[in-house]
Design brief:
single chain; 145 residues; alpha/beta; seven-stranded mixed β-sheet; 4 helices
Length: 145
């Protein structure tokens, strides 16, 4: 599925639509350059899961946890990790066992640890325009905007 958006708000709306239907245990592997809109997408995803608090980038914390919605949301930034081994060292398996949604920025750094993820690629087309491509995962059959 491919969506084109023209603002961060539109990118958030795509994430929100996914958040309404995403299933427990879903792993989302983000791909996209710095500033592409991965955190904006996650803000929308969180809203679709029923979160009302602020969602921020986990750049310096490695993972932000958002509890209190329909499902727990764990937002990871793997930019500073060098391999999947580092991911296991921070307790990846524990997050998977909690039955929430794991969103992984810079997923290519730990690709071998991500089994059958829903891949979301966000490409900059201009200052605020983006092409969002969603691939994999059975959740997509239920997605409508």
């Amino acid at each position: 599925m491919i969506y084109e958006t023209n603002s961060p708000e539109e990118t958030e709306r795509v994430g929100e639509a996914l958040g309404r239907i995403v299933r427990p245990g879903t792993v989302i592997a983000y791909r996209g350059d710095l500033g592409a809109g991965k955190t904006a997408f996650t803000r929308g995803l969180a809203r679709g899961l029923g979160y009302t608090d602020m969602v921020t980038s986990p750049t310096y914390t490695i993972v932000n946890e958002y509890l209190g919605g329909r499902l727990p949301l764990f937002h990871f930034d793997m930019y500073r990790l060098r391999s999947a081994e580092d991911l296991w060292d921070i307790g990846w398996e524990d997050y998977l066992d909690r039955g929430g949604v794991c969103c992984v920025e810079w997923s290519e750094n730990v690709a071998e640890a991500l089994e059958n993820p829903l891949t979301i690629s966000i490409e900059k087309l201009g200052d605020t325009a983006r092409r969002i491509t969603l691939e994999g995962g059975s959740t997509l059959a239920d997605l409508s905007l």
